[in-house]
Amino acid sequence: LAEQAAPRVEDGDQQWLDRLDPERENLRAALAWLTERGDAERCLRLVGDLRGLWFHRGSLSDGWTQLETVLALPGAALPTSARAYALAAAGVLAIWRGDAAASIPLNSEALAICQALGERAAEPWLMVLHGIAASRLGDDDRAIEYWEQSLVLARDVGDRKNAARSLANISSLTVDPQDADRRQAMLEEALALARAAGHPATIHLCLSGLVRCVFDRGNYRQAAVGLQETLAISATSGWQWQLAEQLVAVARLAQATGQHASAACLIGAHDALRERAGMLLSPPLRAQHDQFVLEVRTAMAVDTYTAARTAGEAMPLEEAIAVATNVLTIIVAPDSQSFAPTEAAQP
To answer: Which of 114, 138, 282, 312 is the right S-S partner for 122, CB 3.0 to 4.6 Å?
Structure first.
């Protein structure tokens, strides 16, 4: 089941996530059974297959523990494609657990094994991961280099999914206002590739990039429309890290449009979700988040801020999504104040 589900779960497919999620204890028992019999190869394959479940459904710490155990098994050190597969899974989880530095040796070993075995199809994704790790460590120039290499590799092997990921990630570091048109064009190209690949999580990534792009250009209504779509996708699919990102994205939009109490509430919900799922922010992203929190806190009376944030921390995820949905509804309402930019800033 895990092997059959793996490519679909990695894509964030809701039906396959819902099918695999209830089998966690059975999967854990299967892994223990294989471990007891010393079947390192099948253990490596199984933990690699479960990457998407751990990633999308917020089980990062549990997945990390299982990966560490399997990678340390006798016989698991051989440079096989199964080991590379498990190493890449560990690299993904390390990044989203907030330890990008730990992902670098994992991804590097996986890449070296794939290159030695001539498995070119895996290289674009591993280069994407290298870029994400570099970005999380604050080395944006190196990150762009990795993503540009990934883009070339992906196009060489006809990998539209990782070509889209690379373009979307490169665009995220294009912050010069003079490059706004180029940034949006790259994201639109990435979205077209993601749609052609039929990869829901990458489509979501590109849509989220477009939302940030129009937000940065001051078009809050258009950003709200985009967030309505991405939030609905995340909520329906049960994607944990995407939901966390959407909650804070809506919080930023709420703050920009004067809905300060809602922004504080969503900050609390965002932080609680990350803590529950073991999704920690890297130091550069933590610094950005802390600066945003400071902006929200200084815009409100202390008691009001504290009450709103505390309410968000204690709020069930469904209620937090409802708060975010209400924020977006207010912004896109036809009779609301104008949240569109000036004509000159229109994308």
So the answer is: 114
